[in-house]
Each structure stands twice: as structure tokens, then as C-alpha cells.
Specification:
Elements: E1 6-8, E2 11-13, E3 19-23, H1 29-48, E4 55-58, H2 63-69, H3 75-84, E5 86-89, H4 103-110, E6 115-121, E7 137-143, E8 153-154, H5 159-171, E9 182-183, H6 189-205, E10 210-215, H7 221-238, E11 243-245, H8 246-250, E12 261-267, H9 268-277, E13 284-287, H10 289-302, E14 312-314, E15 319-322, H11 340-353, H12 356-371, E16 374-375, H13 377-380, E17 387-388, H14 391-401
Helix pairs in contact: 1-11, 1-12, 1-14, 6-7, 9-10, 11-12, 12-14
This protein binds 1,4-dihydronicotinamide adenine dinucleotide (NAI).
The site of 1,4-dihydronicotinamide adenine dinucleotide has 19 residues, from loops.
Length: 402
């Protein structure tokens, strides 16, 4: 009998036949979703032989929702993700036009999905600009709800900008020019601590070696600098027996004792260099919104770009898994779309559910398909001697390779 995922005693309980809502997505969404679903169902069947199955439940968002209901994001969709706890989505086109809030951003805000989680690891054979892409294996935890990105801003010359400017200049001793647009950057202890807690828990549960706090605290002391301090103090307070700092590591000759997680920090600009020059020194990364926005795309590019990068937005329990690229309307329906990002996203979802065997099987199938150089158009263009297949054929190649 299909059943809901639920929470008991602070733990996620996954029944053997969980109902998982999905949003197909716009543009290439339906193509890559169909491929992904086929691969996931095949892996679950192969691994669990019918003992476990996923009961997929379609929920609407984007163009399909608009055509069927007149709404881009019906309330029932948000409610369903909240109710069923785990859901997966394809990319959604953001309609162009004034005053339209991105559906993706709305979902994150309404469901308080405060952590944008992006694992970035190279799959052998995927074209990469690095000499040693195999050294990249990081998971970026980007804070989703605060920072300059939260959208508190006023256009230059507007009434709001004028009010803020006057307050700043007459009451706070600032000197903001008359023709300036103004944005507010804020970061709270609560939000900083909860993202650090999530990153550390992930590190513990997945046997990761370090958590690096990436910030710009040398310049923005009371936002980014405080973020760093709050992350360290949370680690010290709640994970005392498990963590150690880089300084403490020195007394162990640079090698952390078994089971210890090293907490360190890097200034954001330096971190971009570090990820190119010494990627193997980094593992879990936790960072505020804007740094995380840049860093997660830059790191994904190191292993072959967004076409192969999975992602999820996760709250305390509710998790919405999504491909990191957009709806690619330019190639919709052509069979050129690579379902790799959404398939890896589904792998992440299966891991979150604790179905690690099925996740591993899909990953191996995908790796084998790529090592055989049977790939979609985007990768085939960059790989010598590759055989190009359509989106849906790629799914079959993965299944045959599992
Ligand atoms: P995009 O990621 O859709 O496309 C950028 C380029 O990458 C295009 O050349 C496209 O053909 C290619 N591409 C993307 N996904 C691919 C795949 N799976 N396989 C092969 N090639 C792929 O970004 P763009 O064009 O800026 O945005 C298009 C729409 O998607 C916009 O409406 C945007 O708002 C939306 N978008 C949605 C996201 C989401 O739902 N999470 C994320 C990013 C953009």
C-alpha cells in the first residue's frame, strides 16, 4: 500500500512504498523527467525486487499548472510538498514580466527550505577544464533565506531609497549618494546556526572529513564575519566531541584523528583560488547566499558544468530535489537534453531516503554509460569518438549498464 513519508521522534520515516510528488517542469522538463523516472523505477525494481517501490504523484507548477488551473503555482502544490515531505522537480521557466516572483524562489520561501545543497563530484569521462577533476568532491551548503539576495532593495530615486538614504545620512553618519540604489544585507544568528548544523550533521552522517565556512568577514564584519563566528560557536557547542579546528590539527601533525571533522574557514575570494589549486583539501562547504550562488556554479563548472550537477533545497525535513540547470527551451522536445543533472538529483533523493543501494546502482549505470561514451548531444560535442543518443535513449543505456 502506498504510504506517506512521515516524521517520528525527530526522524524521517520512509515506508516501503512512499508517495513522492513530482513536478515535471517546463521546456526540457518533461523529457528529462521521463528519463529520470524510468531510470529510478528500474533501479528500485532491480535492487529491491518489488519489496520497495515509489508511488509517483504528479503536482503542478509552471506552464502546465497555468494552462490547467490558471495559476503558475497552485497552493495545493506547495501544500503537497509540505505534506509528503520529499518531492522532486524539473526546471521551471520564469515568465518574463514585471512583478513576477520566480516559482523556484517562492517554493523555497513558502516551505522554508533554508539549505541549498549541491554535491559536486566528477564522473570519469565527463569533459572538464581541470587537469585533475577527480580531486573535486565537495558538497556546498548555501544559506537560502538571508543575505543581500533576500530582495530588500530600493531603486535609485524612489521614495523608499530616499527615505533610507535620508535616515542613513542624517541619523547614522553615512554618505550615500543621491543617485544610489540601495539594498540591505542581513544575516541572523538563527539562520547561520541552522545551516551550519545541517552541514555538520551531513558531514557526520556521510563520514566527511572537514567543513569549511566560506565568508567575506574581513570586509563585512557584522554579517559575514558574524556568520563565521556563529558557525564556529555552533560547532563548538553542539558537536564538541566530533569537531576540531585547523589550529588544533597542528598538534596532530596535520592529520585529524579517526572520526574527527575539521572545521575551518576561508575568505570567499581565496576560496575560489583554493578550489582550483587545491580542491582535494575541501569537503563540505557552508556559506551565505551570495557567495554560495557564485561558488556552487563555479565548482560545478570544474567537473563539467550544470548539465551534470544535482541539487536540493532542504528545510528541517521537507526536501525539494531539483536539477540545477534551467528549462532550456531552446532544445525542448529535440532529444538533446541531458537528463544527467535530474538523474543525479534523484540519486541524491534516494540517498536522503536511505535507499543507498538503488542510488549506488544508478550512479554506476550513469558512470558506465559515460565511460562507454554513449551520451547526449551536450557531452557528445565535447568527447572524441562519442556516440550521440537522445534523452530517452540515454535512460535506456543507463538502465542496461546498471
Ligand atoms: P538554462 O540552464 O535553461 O540553459 C542554459 C544553456 O544550457 C542553454 O544553452 C541550454 O540549452 C543548455 N542546457 C540546459 N540544460 C541542459 C540539459 N539538461 N542538457 C543539455 N543542455 C542543457 O538557462 P537559461 O537559458 O538561462 O534559462 C531558461 C529558463 O530556465 C529561464 O526561464 C530561467 O528562469 C529558468 N531557470 C530555471 C531554473 C530552475 O527551475 N531551477 C534554474 C535556472 C533557470
Amino acid at each position: 500500500m502506498p504510504d506517506k513519508v512521515y516524521i517520528k521522534d525527530g526522524k524521517l520515516i520512509i515506508p516501503d512504498n512512499p508517495i513522492i510528488p513530482f513536478i515535471e517542469g517546463d521546456g526540457t522538463g518533461p523529457d528529462i523527467w521521463r528519463a529520470t523516472r524510468k531510470v529510478v523505477d528500474a533501479a528500485v525494481e532491480k535492487v529491491y525486487g518489488g519489496r520497495r517501490t515509489i508511488e509517483w504523484k504528479e503536482i503542478l507548477a509552471g506552464e502546465k499548472a497555468f494552462h490547467l488551473t490558471g495559476k503558475w503555482l497552485p497552493e495545493e502544490t506547495v501544500d503537497a510538498v509540505r505534506e509528503y515531505i520529499i518531492a522532486i522537480k524539473g526546471p521551471l521557466t520564469t515568465p518574463v514580466g514585471g512583478g513576477f516572483r520566480s516559482i523556484n524562489v517562492t517554493l523555497r520561501q513558502e516551505l522554508d527550505l533554508y539549505a541549498c545543497v549541491r554535491p559536486v563530484k566528477w564522473i570519469p569521462g565527463v569533459p572538464s577544464p581541470l587537469l585533475h577533476p577527480e580531486q573535486v568532491d565537495v558538497v556546498v551548503f548555501r544559506e537560502n533565506t538571508e543575505d543581500i539576495y533576500a530582495g530588500i532593495e530600493w531603486q535609485a530615486g524612489s521614495e523608499g531609497a530616499e527615505k533610507i538614504r535620508e535616515f542613513l545620512n542624517t541619523r547614522m553618519g553615512c554618505n550615500v549618494p543621491e543617485d544610489a540604489g540601495i539594498g540591505i544585507k542581513y544575516m541572523s544568528k538563527t539562520a547561520s546556526e541552522r545551516i551550519m548544523r545541517k552541514a555538520l550533521k551531513y558531514a557526520v552522517e556521510n563520514g566527511r572529513k572537514s567543513v569549511t565556512v566560506v565568508h567575506k568577514g574581513n570586509i563585512m564584519k557584522y554579517t559575514e564575519g558574524s556568520f563565521k563566528n556563529w558557525c564556529y560557536s555552533l560547532a563548538e557547542r553542539e558537536f564538541k566531541d566530533i569537531v576540531m579546528t585547523e589550529k588544533e590539527l597542528l598538534s596532530y601533525g596535520g592529520n585529524a584523528p579517526e572520526g574527527k571533522i575539521v572545521v575551518k574557514d576561508r575568505i570567499a575570494d581565496n576560496m575560489f583560488q583554493q578550489m582550483l589549486l587545491r580542491p582535494s583539501e575541501y569537503d563540505v562547504i557552508v556559506t551565505p547566499n551570495l557567495n554560495g550562488d557564485y561558488l556552487s556554479d563555479a565548482v560545478a563548472a570544474q567537473v563539467g558544468g550544470l548539465g551534470m550537477a544535482p541539487g536540493a533545497n532542504i528545510g528541517d525535513f521537507v526536501a525539494l530535489f531539483e536539477a540545477t540547470h534551467g528549462s532550456a527551451p531552446d532544445i525542448a522536445g529535440t532529444g538533446k537534453a541531458n537528463p544527467g543533472s535530474l538523474i543525479l538529483t534523484a540519486v541524491m533523493m534516494l540517498e536522503y531516503m536511505g535507499w543507498k543501494e538503488a542510488a549506488g546502482m544508478i550512479l554506476r549505470g550513469l558512470e558506465t554509460a559515460i565511460s562507454k561514451k554513449i551520451v547526449t548531444n551536450d557531452l557528445a560535442k565535447q568527447m572524441e569518438g562519442a556516440k550521440e543518443v537522445k534523452t530517452w535513449e540515454f535512460a535506456d543505456v543507463i538502465i542496461a549498464s546498471m
